[in-house]
């Protein structure tokens, strides 16, 4: 799988409205991801993407940068996504520990084969489960030249505005 396509795909920010941040006892986090491509021969890392995602514990978050192919209306079915999709959830235990479940899917779409009526997407999925890295970044190597860096922090509580 080419990591080069991630440079275009994995960028952006998922925001949570302030009204949701103030509800319930769920904790809010800011997660910073950095996706790197290494070149061991040149002893150099290149940043492919560095999105920031706002997430609430216990609630799924997702981010898609790429596109979608709609199903044929005659048949229905599911949408085919391509590009980079990030999905995850932060889970908190009763004893105060926090765990991050994260899945990153990198995929491409092939041009449709009109004669065979075939639409194809293909790619790789990387799934991670780890303690949420608060305070210091966590670095994970995948494939031969990929590095994922994750840093998380508690979000500032929403404050009420007065006029």
TrEMBL record:
- The stretch of residues making up the signal peptide is 1-21
Q: Which UniProt keywords apply?
A: Signal
Determine if Signal is one of this entry's keywords: yes
Tell me where on the tree of life, at the top rank, the source sits: Bacteria
Q: What is this protein called?
A: SHSP domain-containing protein
**Source organism per UniProt:** Blastopirellula sediminis
Task: Give the source lineage, highest ranks first.
Answer: Bacteria, Pseudomonadati, Planctomycetota, Planctomycetia, Pirellulales
């Amino acid at each position: 799988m080419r990591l080069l396509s991630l440079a275009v795909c994995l960028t952006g920010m998922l925001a949570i409205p302030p009204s949701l941040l103030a509800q319930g006892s769920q904790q809010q986090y800011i997660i910073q991801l950095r996706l790197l491509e290494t070149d061991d021969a040149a002893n150099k890392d290149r940043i492919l993407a560095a999105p920031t995602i706002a997430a609430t514990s216990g609630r799924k978050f997702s981010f898609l940068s790429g596109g979608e192919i709609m199903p044929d209306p005659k048949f229905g079915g599911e949408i085919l996504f391509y590009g980079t999709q990030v999905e995850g959830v932060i889970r908190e235990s009763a004893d105060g520990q926090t765990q991050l479940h994260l899945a990153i899917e990198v995929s491409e779409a092939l041009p449709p084969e009109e004669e065979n009526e075939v639409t194809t997407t293909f790619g790789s999925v990387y799934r991670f489960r780890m303690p949420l890295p608060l305070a210091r970044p966590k670095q994970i190597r995948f494939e031969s030249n990929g590095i994922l860096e994750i840093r998380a922090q508690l979000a500032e509580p929403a404050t009420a505005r007065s006029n």
